[in-house]
Amino acid sequence: MGRLLDSCDTTVSASYRLFGLFDMTMGAETFDAAADMTNWLLPGPGLVYLQVPDQVGRTVIRLESWSTPPVLPPGEWAGREEVEVELPEGELGLQTVDGGLVPVPLVLPSPGTYRMRWQWVFNPDAGPFTSPLEGHSEVLAKQSGHEAALRGEDQFCLVQIWRAAA
Q1: pLDDT (tens digit, 9 = 90+) per residue, 27-45?
Q2: 147 by DSSP, 3-state: which?
Q3: d(CA 44, CA 141)
Q4: Alpha helices in the chain (DSSP H)
Q5: In a 3-state reduction of DSSP, which class is residue 25?
Q6: pLDDT tens-digit profile of 65-88?
Q7: In the beta sheet, which residues pair with residue 8?
Q8: Does the predicted model carry a pTM greater than 0.85?
Q9: Non-local CB neighbours of 34 within 8 Å, separated by 6+ positions
Q10: Pairing mode, strands 47-51 and 18-23
Q11: Cβ atoms within 10 Å, residue 115
């Protein structure tokens, strides 16, 4: 079982239905041009963007660094995806188109290749929220049980990060 090494909580306002987690050395990179827009996560060199519904104003994010893959957290989630990303420096920041790049104080063990598990829920007292994915426009289900983590915002996102197997 993995051990939690570090964590931090922050809030971000998505712009253009996106926000991203970046290695701070990457500059103004973007996700791969061939990224599958039917997936929630859009990876690129040293970064991952999450697509969010137009109706999401603010997202509470909990970032966690783990020694090995953590067990799945309890409760129902609106979505879950995993991706592998090379982080050349391992110093992370959150990026939005309108807000720029803001450093986050999450400590990773070292630079390298990491797995990231992203999970999210939407506020059951807000919305309705519609899918931002290409070719989809359905109303998304809202799960209860995460109200404390939402802190009144539109979305809560848990990002768990651990070194990828060599």
Answers
A1: 656 666 777 888 999 988 8
A2: helix
A3: 28
A4: 147-150
A5: helix
A6: 999 999 998 889 999 999 999 999
A7: 63
A8: yes
A9: none
A10: antiparallel
A11: 17
